[in-house]
Design a protein that fits this description.
190 residues; Four Helix Bundle (Hemerythrin (Met), subunit A); 8% strand
């Protein structure tokens, strides 16, 4: 049976986890409509200001639909990272965590600037470019070494899963989850 998300939770202290879990479940299982869909409203360019930790970040002509689509990809990668961890494929898990952080930040970039930001696979720098708070930039920087091109420069592919423990991968999963929550609060609450 379809459910409508109202943004309310019986347990406010656990609403972030349940919202992410609900989104991941919808992405994995799909959505069915019980009534005919209405015509989607036209979305004008976004004209708003988000106040960040370092001051105001002005948004002009953002791409809301593109941001939501890229955020959905990040949420789906988060679900895949969990599956990879469960399968014992630790490098695959952290590689997906790296992708979660990148796509989440690029979704914010699409919303704020109407384009994705150019960067050199340094996720901490990408966080700074899109106006992420320092703690989110730090979480993103933790995931930077797991871009495959960088990681495989020092580690043979056949040893990748042995280099990262399940406990370490679980910690990286938490970092990716923090980045995804930060982006969700921006992209899904314009």
């Amino acid at each position: 049976m379809p459910q409508m998300h109202t943004g309310n939770s019986a347990d406010p202290g656990n609403s972030d986890d349940s919202n992410v879990d609900d989104l991941e479940r919808l992405l994995v299982e799909g959505v069915t409509l019980s009534q005919a869909p209405a015509d989607p409203p036209a979305s004008p360019p976004i004209q708003r200001e988000d106040e960040g930790e370092d001051g105001d970040v002005e948004t002009r002509g953002g791409d809301l639909q593109g941001a939501i689509g890229l955020f959905a990809e990040a949420a789906q990668d988060m679900a895949t990272a969990r599956v990879e961890l469960g399968l014992g494929r630790h490098f695959a898990c952290v590689d997906y965590c790296n992708q979660v952080a990148e796509k989440a930040a690029q979704a914010v970039s699409l919303l704020r600037f109407g384009r994705m930001s150019s960067y050199d696979h340094d996720l901490g720098k990408l966080g700074a470019l899109v106006g992420a708070p320092k703690e989110i930039q730090d979480e993103m920087a933790i995931l930077t070494p797991f871009h495959p091109e960088s990681f495989y420069a020092d580690t043979p592919p056949e040893e990748a899963d042995d280099v990262i423990s399940a406990e370490q991968a679980s910690g990286y999963l938490q970092s990716a989850r923090h980045v995804l929550r930060w982006a969700r609060n921006i992209v899904l609450n314009p």
